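Data deposition worksheet. Section B asks for the primary sequence of the deposited chain exactly as it was used as input, without tags or linkers unless they were present during the calculation. Section C holds the resulting structure in token form. Section D is free text for depositor observations; keep each observation to a single sentence. Incomplete worksheets are returned to the depositor.
Section A, Depositor: J.P.
Section B:
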Amino acid sequence: MKWANGWWSSSVLDQILPWLTYLGSHFAVIFFILLSWILTKQRRVLRLLLLLYGIQSAVIYGLKFLVKRERPLFFLEMASKLSEGPGEILDPSFPSGHAAFSFMMATLLSTWFPRYRILFFIVAAFIGWTRIYLGLHYPTDVIAGALLGYGITKLFLHRVDGLEIKTHDQTDGRPIGQPQMECL
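Section C:
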């Protein structure tokens, strides 16, 4: 971690990443849930997303306080790159909540908009990488958080009905993924 902190450090990234890392925060998840509810106008979607968020939070924070892994920022006495950002609540390190929440949102979005799933997971992985760059998590924290966020969300989607959002192709109004019927 010390070696990586030295060779990939950049003053531009030090200014930008403390803000971008919050795309996986509790505030971002709440905004995502509210926006999903507003766009769908379905209370069931709101209730199910809040339930999923609660399950994710319970698992993540249960593990954090069970494992009680110290963050690399303190353990390795690394300089904090967070001074340029909005601040951070420093609970235990393992697993990364930001990675879990970003992969939860990416998994949901990729279910609703499968055409863009690679983009959603790239953004989620980028958010996880920001946590390592900032010295807030070890790579294993981020990997575990990502796997939990993805796995819990997939299991939730498999077990619970009602989170299917119908999206339509812009050109002909067909649901995305449905083949076009041609008349002979």
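Section D:
The two ends are 63 Å apart (CA to CA).
Residues 83-87, 168-172, 176-184 have pLDDT under 50 and may be disordered.
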